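In response to the reviewer comment on reproducibility (Comment 2.3), we provide here a single inverse folding case reported in full, input and output, so that an independent group could reproduce the run without further information from us. The structure tokens appear first.
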């Protein structure tokens, strides 16, 4: 079988920071509707009776507490918002959750699951800026992204993974009672797909919804939540056989029948016991029997009987444990991913720098690696036409470049910018000379300075970079991914590792995770000393920094757009860059109407040894910034807390 689980398109990886950008309030559970359980019956039109579910008889082989844990640890489902995860029109995973729609069933102990899916449900849009807008439910179409991918999986007879969350009302056990928010059910294939009407609170009172019948893939044993004994079920071959489909038996006479519509000529299966109907949404006879729509519909018993299908080489769903690499580099993208605990089955995000740790049983998995050095990143060449900076067309920023030799392009691209040629900037203490750029923000909002590192000036930075890695790997520097304050279900961690020293800083991990300076590792103290020195030389005054946030980024990690506008912060913030180069983008905050929210007004390239200084409270009040490293990077950012 084709390796359909392999992820060849890394660009389709869900961006957790795009999710984080949408929320900025303290963490609570979603205000979702109360759910009820449902008996497994063929007559799904019977009323749903609320009842107390029993606890799981066994722990799931693969489960998680948060959606982030699933997306970071389980390659078959990496969608943070949609219930369908697909790549290149191939569905990898499908999440069951919430209250059932009409005729959704959990049948035959979960060997047959019928569910609606594909999006276009009613929703609330644009709730962050301006009044919220309510979007009514809309008809699903076969060309919609998720529906199209599901239909292709149905046509190709391609297996996919079903997951369920603790709000999936049809699952017979109480997942929440054992702390399982998400569970992996197993491998299924789509045996039938069809469209039908569902009631909706839109102008028409109904919408077209696609239904999919998911059947358990034989060859993976019994469903883990059932007894070890096989259920007594009749097996029917699939009448829709093809030469490319997996091996199956010839179709017997009593298989599900397909009937061609007299009006559209399209065939539809006999789904309901009340009789055959056309299931083509574009046909005038759609969803009617004898010219009328029925309120009560029950599945035909033949339609619910399983179909015999044999798949070869079904993949192992338990994620493999990452082992040592040939180059001993442990900061690549693979090492930022979560892991599956073989002992208890829990999926856990990697929240500690020094090793993986199970969030349930606290088992540890550690892979030794070597320290990175700055010259490993000298070859990096950002695919841009500027060396250090780019000012947006509508930024309103004049630029003072204190080395035109480094930025000769500024005259051509930044019309009207004033420039000057001062003497080279001397660092002192044997650091040699360097140059720095200053950007003056409009309306006296502040200045942004970029002090460039050089091979001679970076001797201190090189040693600090080494100490940071060594002390983080040994656990002396407690780099952690802390929870963000989001209104979503479950814990949602930052997309980088950090540790705060000095005065408490509320933005990361709360004030209780700060280490006082007298207990901070030498790497942190060295970074603070270097930042103070460069800031004093650039601003010609001492800045009383009393807090420093150390942030570490593995490959593909980043910090989302934010502003350092917490109450009590001083007007000067300075940051030291170590390791890989990174892009730093500035844009106007959503509250500012002068510049479009999506436009970057300024982009800087931060390299090893560079020191960035943001001078003026107006920068944080009117702008927000993001940092996107090109590879492994450490940054140390110093602030003045309590000095307004």
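Designed residues, in position order:
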């Amino acid at each position: 079988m084709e390796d359909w689980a392999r992820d060849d398109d890394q660009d389709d990886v869900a961006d957790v920071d795009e999710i984080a950008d949408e929320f900025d309030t303290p963490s609570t559970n979603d205000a979702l509707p109360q759910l009820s359980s449902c008996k497994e019956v063929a007559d799904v039109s019977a009323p749903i009776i609320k009842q107390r579910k029993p606890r799981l008889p066994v722990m799931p082989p693969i489960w998680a507490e948060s959606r982030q844990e699933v997306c970071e640890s389980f390659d078959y489902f990496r969608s943070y918002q949609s219930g369908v995860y697909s790549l290149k029109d191939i569905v990898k995973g499908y999440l069951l959750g919430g209250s059932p729609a009409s005729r959704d069933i959990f049948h035959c102990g979960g060997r047959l699951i019928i569910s609606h899916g594909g999006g276009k449900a009613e929703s609330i849009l644009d709730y962050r800026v301006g009044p919220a807008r309510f979007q009514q439910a809309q008809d699903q179409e076969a060309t919609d992204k998720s529906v199209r991918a599901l239909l292709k999986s149905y046509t190709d007879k391609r297996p996919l993974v079903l997951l369920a969350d603790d709000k999936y009302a049809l699952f017979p056990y109480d997942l929440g009672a054992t702390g399982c928010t998400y569970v992996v059910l197993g491998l299924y294939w789509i045996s039938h797909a069809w469209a039908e009407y569902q009631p909706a609170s839109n102008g028409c009172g109904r919408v077209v919804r696609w239904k999919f019948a998911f059947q358990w893939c034989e060859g993976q044993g019994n469903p883990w939540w059932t007894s070890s004994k096989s259920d007594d079920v009749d097996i029917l071959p699939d009448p829709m056989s093809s030469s490319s489909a997996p091996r199956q038996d010839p179709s017997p006479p009593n298989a599900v029948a397909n009937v061609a519509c007299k009006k559209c000529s399209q065939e539809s299966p006999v789904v309901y016991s009340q009789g055959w109907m056309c299931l083509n949404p574009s046909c005038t006879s759609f969803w009617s029997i004898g010219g009328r729509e029925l309120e009560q519909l029950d599945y035909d018993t033949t339609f619910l009987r399983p179909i015999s299908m044999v798949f070869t080489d079904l993949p192992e769903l338990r994620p493999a444990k990452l082992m040592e690499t040939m180059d001993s580099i442990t900061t690549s993208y693979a090492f930022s991913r979560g892991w599956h605990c073989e002992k208890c089955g829990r999926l856990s995000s990697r929240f500690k720098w020094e090793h993986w740790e199970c969030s349930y049983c606290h088992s540890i998995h550690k892979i030794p690696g070597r320290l990175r050095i700055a010259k490993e990143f000298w070859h990096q060449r950002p695919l841009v036409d500027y060396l250090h900076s780019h000012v947006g067309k509508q930024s309103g920023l004049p630029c003072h470049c204190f080395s035109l030799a480094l930025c000769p392009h500024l005259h051509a691209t930044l019309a009207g910018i004033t420039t000057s040629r001062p003497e080279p900037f001397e660092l002192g203490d044997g650091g040699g000379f360097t140059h720095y750029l200053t950007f003056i923000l409009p309306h006296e909002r502040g200045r942004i300075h970029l002090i460039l590192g050089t091979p001679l000036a970076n001797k201190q930075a090189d040693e600090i970079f080494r100490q940071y890695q060594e002390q983080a790997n040994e656990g002396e520097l407690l780099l952690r991914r802390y929870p963000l304050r989001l209104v979503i279900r479950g814990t949602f961690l930052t997309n980088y590792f950090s540790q705060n020293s000095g005065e408490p800083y509320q933005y990361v991990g709360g004030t209780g995770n700060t280490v006082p300076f007298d207990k901070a590792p030498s790497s942190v103290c060295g970074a603070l000393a270097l930042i103070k020195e460069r800031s004093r030389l650039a601003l010609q005054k001492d800045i009383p920094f009393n807090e420093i946030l150390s942030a570490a980024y593995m490959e593909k990690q980043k910090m989302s757009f934010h502003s350092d506008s917490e109450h009590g912060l001083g007007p000067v913030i300075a940051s030291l860059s170590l390791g890989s180069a990174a892009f730093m983008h500035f844009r106007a905050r959503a509250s500012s109407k002068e510049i479009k929210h999506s436009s970057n007004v300024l982009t800087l390239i931060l390299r090893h040894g560079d020191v960035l200084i943001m001078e003026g409270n107006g920068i944080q009040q009117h702008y927000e910034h993001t940092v996107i490293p090109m590879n492994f990077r450490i940054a140390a950012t110093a602030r003045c807390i309590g000095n307004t």
